[in-house]
């Protein structure tokens, strides 16, 4: 529940800034952290494109780990993430 409140607050702040025409800044440490993670991975044998990985993880998180979840769906989500990770090569 707390995550929903925090996320809603950030969304509201960004919408308000956009409506006011104010530039929206991204926390540089978060941006750099994402860049570092992406640098550590490359696709193995062209198995997935980056957008396919993103879409697959997003879909899995929604269907298996979202608001409605069970122990079984969480286990399935872990298995799917491990499969995706197995097709990526850590540099």
| Total of domains | 1
Measured distance between first and last alpha carbons: 36 Å
| Overall geometry | flat
What's the average pLDDT? 75
Indicate the percent of residues in helices.
Answer: 55-70%
Which spans have pLDDT < 50 for at least 5 consecutive residues?
A: none
Sheet with the most strands, sense and barrel status:
2 strands, antiparallel
Question: Major sheet: order of its strands?
Answer: 1-2
Structural class: mainly alpha
Q: How do the SSEs run, as a string of H and E?
A: HHEHHE
**Number of continuous helical runs:** 4
SS strand fraction = 5-15%
Q: How large is the radius of gyration?
A: 17 Å
Tally of strands: 2
Outline:
This protein has 91 residues and is mostly helical. Helix content is 68%, strand content 7%.
């Amino acid at each position: 529940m707390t995550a929903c409140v925090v996320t809603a607050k950030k969304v509201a702040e960004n919408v308000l800034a956009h409506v006011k025409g104010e530039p929206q800044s991204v926390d540089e440490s978060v941006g750099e952290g994402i860049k570092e993670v992406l640098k550590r991975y490359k696709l193995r044998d062209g198995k997935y494109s980056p957008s396919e990985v993103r879409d697959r993880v997003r879909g899995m998180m929604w269907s298996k780990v979202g608001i409605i979840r069970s122990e079984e769906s969480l286990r399935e989500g872990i298995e799917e993430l491990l499969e995706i990770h197995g097709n990526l090569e850590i540099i």
